[in-house]
Design brief:
Shape: elongated
Largest sheet: none
Strand content: under 5%
Low-confidence stretches: none
Radius of gyration: 18 Å
Structural class: mainly alpha
Number of helices: 7
Distance between the termini: 28 Å
Number of domains: 1
Amino acid sequence: MDIAEWLSALEHSPLAELMRHSLWTYPIVEVVHIVGFAILVGAVALFDLRLLGFSRTVSIRALERHLLPWAWVAFLLIVPSGVAMLSAHATEFIANPAFRVKLVLIAFAGVNALVFHGGVYRSVSSWDQHLPTPGAAKASAAFSLALWLGVITCGRLIAYV
C-alpha cells in the first residue's frame, strides 16, 4: 500500500467519519493536541534555554530528568490526536505545503535530539553546572528552538495555506 492509498483508507475510516461528523470530537481532539504540543515545546524550550546559558545554577542532568517524562507524556497526547485530526482530511492535509513542512521540521527536530543525546550530551557530567556549555550543545539548542518555532508556525499556517 502506497502513501496515497494509506491516506485514502485513513480518510474513509470510522475514526475519520467520527472526526468529521461529530460536533465536539474534532475540537476536543484539537485541544488535546495543542495542550500536548504546549507541554512538549515548553519542556524542550526550557531545556534548550538552559543549554544556551540561562539558569546556570540549575543542573542540566536534573533538568533533563524532570522534563523528559513530561515530553514523553506530551508525545503520547500529540501523536494519537494528530493522527485523528489527519484522518478527517488526510488527502487535503498532505497536499498542504505548510503541513508537509511541519512534518519535515518535526523529523529534523527528532534527528537533532538523537544527535545531541548520542553526542555532546554524553559528556554532560563534565559541564553540567556552573561551567560553559559546549558550542555543539548550544548549536543543537538554538537549532532545536528554531525548528520548534517553525513547527508552531507551520501548524498555524495549515488553516490558511
